[in-house]
Amino acid sequence: MCEQPKPRIAPGVCIPWEEKRKEFPEITGDEEIIKRTWEDVDGLAYTYVWQVLLSF
Amino acid sequence: MPAEMEQRYTERLKRYVAAMRNEKPDMVPIRPFVAEFTSKYCGYTAQEVTQDYEKAFAAARKCAADFDWDAVVCNMVYGWSGLTQAIGLKYYAVPGVDLPPQTGFQYLEPPEGNAWMQAEEYDELIADPTGYLFNVWLPRVSADVSPAGQPTSYRNNLSFLKGGMAMWQYFGAFGTQAARLRAESGTVSAISGILKAPFDIIADKLRGYRGLCTDMFRQPEKVLAACEAMMPHLLHVAAGGADPQRNVPVGLWMHRGCVPFLSPQQFEKFYWPTLKQIIEGLHAQGIQTLFYAEGEWNPNLKYIAELPDLSIVYHVDRGDVFEVHKAVGHKFCISGGIRNDLLALGTPDDVREFCRKVIDGVARDGGYIMDASAIIQNDAKVENVKAMTDATREYGVY
Predict the structure, then answer these.
(1) What value of ipTM does the predicted structure carry?
(2) CA distance linking residue B220 with residue B226, whole number of Å
(3) Tell me: the pLDDT tens digits for A3-24?
(4) Which of A9, A40, A47, A52 is best to mutate for the B interface (most B CBs within 10 A)?
(5) Cβ-Cβ contacts under 8 Å for B7 (sequence gap 6 or more)
(6) Which of B145, B121, B142, B146 is nearest to B132 (CA)?
(7) Using an 8 Å Cβ cutoff, are B251 and B211 in contact?
(8) What is the spatial distance between Cα B23 and Cα B333, in angstroms, rounded to a whole number?
(9) Backbone angles phi and psi of B195, in degrees to 5
(10) Which residue, B79, B343, B375, B388, is the most exposed by fewest CB within 10 angstroms?
(11) How far apart are CA B189 and CA B179, in angstroms?
(12) Is B82 part of the contact surface with chain A (CB cutoff 8 Å)?
């Protein structure tokens, strides 16, 4: 299979976690759970616009 | 769920999957893609099933129960206008509003010279397809969404809220529909997930077909780069919606890749490379693709034959189904090939005879699924769809 080009912003992502992370002054607890939740919900918006494009 | 119905579902699933794996099941499976035919059968208008998805679901369930089909799509009148109106999408013609109530919904090409994506915007799309869709495309195709950088509005905010929640509600209802098809008639939900070729997305939703035809000559490298930029996203979305059990395929709805829209040379250069990679990427994850080859695709068979064995279920529309079987039947299951004009204008005897001819010519070694050539709308006669079903049960037993 041919190598696929790497997109600047990965599939499934609207606002990357790295960008959102800069808005937090400090994370005193579990950063991983915040990241995971951010990415899950961000993925819903991604799904929205791509499904509008594909399915409607 | 009654044990008898679950048994029927198990038999039908086994039959359907065996055929898709190019094996010989107990009999030829029947998997008609019925859209507005269901509304005709149930006494609804096309407007009703387009506007009210619960009526569309109910019509699909009644047809599945009455016609002894093995698999159906949960709702082939998939473009629910409740959502398109919530977003204010401009590229739809809706029955009962823009069209007569009995005419199926239509997609509209963008106005010539004023496509949803401008010719000079390829770089922006390529750099960030998702960002482009949100910031540029959606405001252009929606009557309510404000362009990025412009003042927002009540309608803009409501468009996103209503659109998002309507999509959640509608897509969530598909799960219930699939469960009811199984419980009430032992019918398999035929496909899971959606895919379109990068080239078709650019033609249908971004540049328009005419705009893209011009781009192929004036900026071919941008067209190729745009297809490549969209490819990982389309693979991601298709894989995300795929059947977790890997039984039923992702639906790939192809549009402008066939003659006369593209020459085989244009197909080879622009349409095929990225689509092939997506299908191979899905295959690598154990996901089959329903290759819905709408139109005349036989001139492209030599390219399609490059795909891995069993990676697709090849659906035949206007191509000669016997030629398709000869060329790629050893690699892929074939579905369709029963002409829609026959279902609309022929007699039950005509339909029965043609179905028998197709079963004899294509299905004898397995790997065939009975269906019409194209999506069955409300021009098809009920007695002819019944004849197609009955003929398959009569002649299609192994």
Answers:
(1) 0.96
(2) 10
(3) 555 668 999 999 999 999 999 9
(4) A52
(5) B186
(6) B121
(7) no
(8) 8
(9) -145, 145
(10) B79
(11) 9
(12) no
Q: Is B79 on the interface with A (CB under 8 A)?
A: yes
B56 within 8 A of B38, measured Cβ to Cβ: yes
Residue A13, number of CB atoms within 10 A of its CB: 18
What gap in Å lies between CA B332 and CA B315, rounded to an integer? Answer: 10
Contact B252, B198 (CB under 8 A): no
Q: Provide mean pLDDT across the span B181-193.
A: 98
pLDDT in tens, B323-361: 999 999 999 999 999 999 999 999 999 999 999 999 999
Per the CB < 8 A criterion, the answer to whether B117 and B207 are in contact is yes
Q: In 10 A of CB A19, how many CB atoms?
A: 11
CB of B166 closer than 8 Å to CB of B217: no
**What would you measure as the largest C-alpha separation in chain B, in angstroms?**
66
Mean pLDDT value across residues B133-162: 96
B163 has a chain A CB within 8 A of its CB: yes
Chain A contact probe: residue of B236, B252, B254 with most A CBs at under 10 A: B236
HEC string for B136-153: HHHHHHECCCCCCCCCCC
The sheet that has B194-195: what strands, in order across it? B194-195, B250-253, B289-293, B312-316, B333-336, B368-369
Instruction: Give the rounded distance of the alpha carbon of B48 from its chain centre.
Output: 21
With tokens 């689509």, the residue in question is: B275
How much of chain B exceeds pLDDT 90, in percent? 97
Contact across the interface for A50 and B130, Cβ inside 8 Å? yes
**Contact between residue B33 and residue B340 where contact means Cβ atoms under 8 Å apart:** no
- H helices of chain B, where? 3-20, 36-42, 46-51, 53-67, 81-87, 122-127, 129-132, 138-141, 154-185, 198-201, 208-218, 220-240, 264-266, 272-284, 301-304, 321-328, 340-345, 348-358, 382-395
Residues of A in contact with B167 (CB under 8 A): 48, 51-52
The chain A residue lying nearest B126, using CA atoms, is: A7
pTM: 0.96
Contacts of B254 (CB under 8 A, 6+ apart): B196, B197, B200, B291, B292, B293, B294, B295, B297
Give the integer Cα–Cα distance in Å for B205 and A17. 29
